[in-house]
Amino acid sequence: MHIQEWLETIPAVSIYLLVGLVIGLESLGIPLPGEIILVSSALLASQHGEIDPVVLGLCAITGAIVGDSIGYAIGRRGGKPLLERLGRRFPKHFGPQQVALAERSFEKWGMWAVFFGRFVALLRIFAGPLAGVLHMPYWRFLVANVLGGILWAGGTTAVIYSVGIVAEPWLKRFSWLALGLAVLFGLVVTLVVRSRMKKAAEAAGAGGAEIPAQPTARATVGE
């Protein structure tokens, strides 16, 4: 069953809780389809009046901020061994290349990696735990976490809801065509993003830079 079709079978309160929980767990560091759930729920809200888009957006924002904060605390306490354990458990998401790429992003951008990481699937999972592992000052992390969570979760909800409202009459007339085009577009975007992430990870590994020792990374991020 398609995610949106499944969401239509559960009450509004459950959708609010589901969105907050899935996004929170993803932000905490567990690979889950938070963005897909959010987009599907926002689109569903545009076609069903019983789902309040404001409440939906607030639940998404809360899940993003709280999840990232918990991930930060876990990363700060667990340190590098935590990333190694996650790498063994989720090699496609926390493998050496992915960790190296994420760390290079943090070294270059600092707190902005947390902010912009909301909009990149890989960094969205890494941001909280990795900021904790690298001992980013909490106030920097908190500012980037809150602003990024509001812009990504709230903005995504608002944009998808608005698009759904505008497109609803057109979708009703060309539902099968729209669905086919949407699926095709989603597949193309997914393949392109995966290809670019793979090339970036390979470039990071080929750049000769091993994952820096924790004291060096801590000093860089803390500046």
TrEMBL record:
UniProt cross-references to Pfam families, sorted A to Z: VTT_dom
Annotated transmembrane regions: 12-33, 54-74, 109-127, 139-162, 174-193
Topology within the bilayer: Multi-pass membrane protein
InterPro entries: DedA-like, VTT_dom
Keywords assigned by UniProt, alphabetized: Cell membrane, Membrane, Transmembrane, Transmembrane helix
Domain VTT: 32-161
Compartments, as annotated in UniProt: Cell membrane
Chief localization: membrane
Signal sequence range: none
Annotated family: Belongs to the DedA family.
Protein name listed in UniProt: Membrane protein
Native organism: Streptomyces virginiae
Taxonomic lineage from the root: Bacteria, Bacillati, Actinomycetota, Actinomycetes, Kitasatosporales
